[in-house]
UniProtKB/TrEMBL annotation:
Protein name stated in the entry: BH2173 protein
Residue span, MIP18 family-like domain: 11-77
Organism: Halalkalibacterium halodurans (strain ATCC BAA-125 / DSM 18197 / FERM 7344 / JCM 9153 / C-125)
Top-level taxon of the source organism: Bacteria
Pfam families, sorted: FeS_assembly_P (PF01883)
Amino acid sequence: MGTEQEIQETKDRVMAQLENVIDPELGIDIVNLGLVYDILVDAEWNVTVVMTLTSMGCPLAGVIHDQVKQTLSELQELKEIGDVDVNIVWNPPWTKDKMSRYAKIALGVAD
């Protein structure tokens, strides 16, 4: 198992890579939308992305799931991470409050 700093650096790299996954309906990345709740890293550097979607009936759930795995495959090829799992959760439910200021401004929902 890596040090706490190495694990945090891996989580940061994964999160940065996930900024390349754009929600097809909203045109904003899943990180700024606040859809990524956590990045879990185990002793073998396998990664689980704990995330949600904007709605339970999201017709693009499969597309977003595949995009997450595809974008993280670049880190796998560099041997920075092992296997990738995507865990879609519904609790806590996503709300607009989870979006970054950038996403709120881009979507015209800024406070």
